Amino acid sequence: MESNAVLLESKSSPLHLLNEMHQQRLLGHLCDVTVSVEYQGVRAEFVAHKAVLAATSKFFKEVFLNEKGVDGPRTQVLLNEVQVADFASFLEFVYTARVEVEEDRVQRMLEIAEKLKCLDLSETCFQLKRQMLESVLLELQNFSESQSSEEESSARAGASLDSKAGAVAKAEQADCPLGPPTSPGDSPGHGAAPELPAAKPKEK
């Protein structure tokens, strides 16, 4: 009787593999390719593993598969118009699947990803740029809403002041007679009380 097949799968193995390859590269162990990077007179060399570069970059895969022969213990690859810092970040990404860069370098990382045909890095840069754009749009929207609410509140405050001024004016008009104001000498005690036509017949 045959037993059922079971799946043995390690969730941590890919991460361990990447970490080990990264450590081997940093120590220069088992590296079989040297990449020379030059940009505006600044030049640097990086050692790496063909298998890792070929697995993550179609550019390097084409280079390694089309090479006729090896001129020495390591294959030499020259990259022009690529900044040293950007290629160092590229190498860190392909060996660790993560890298920290400044916001203003994201576009450059996208350009090097397209130049070296690294799909994973391209997608990561696109996602990050979209998040940054959404964040900026959200900030602009919040700013616009706050400005609108401030304008509305100031308009309401102005309308409230206008209504209060109107109410005060109406109250003043209701309390004050239409004629000229009376002086203290015109008070009833001085015999100059205003005439009351309606009251005269009752007094008679």
Automatic annotation (TrEMBL):
Gene that encodes it: Gzf1_0
Give the compositionally biased regions (Low complexity): 192-204
Where are the annotated segments for Disordered? 147-204
Do you know which SUPFAM superfamilies this protein is assigned to? POZ domain
Name of the molecule in the record: GZF1 protein
> What species was this sequence derived from?
Oreotrochilus melanogaster
MF terms from GO for this chain are:
DNA-binding transcription factor activity, RNA polymerase II-specific; RNA polymerase II cis-regulatory region sequence-specific DNA binding
Task: Give all residue intervals belonging to the BTB domain.
Answer: 31-103
Coiled-coil segments, which residues?
Answer: none
- Residues crossing the lipid bilayer are none
Q: Which PROSITE patterns match?
A: BTB
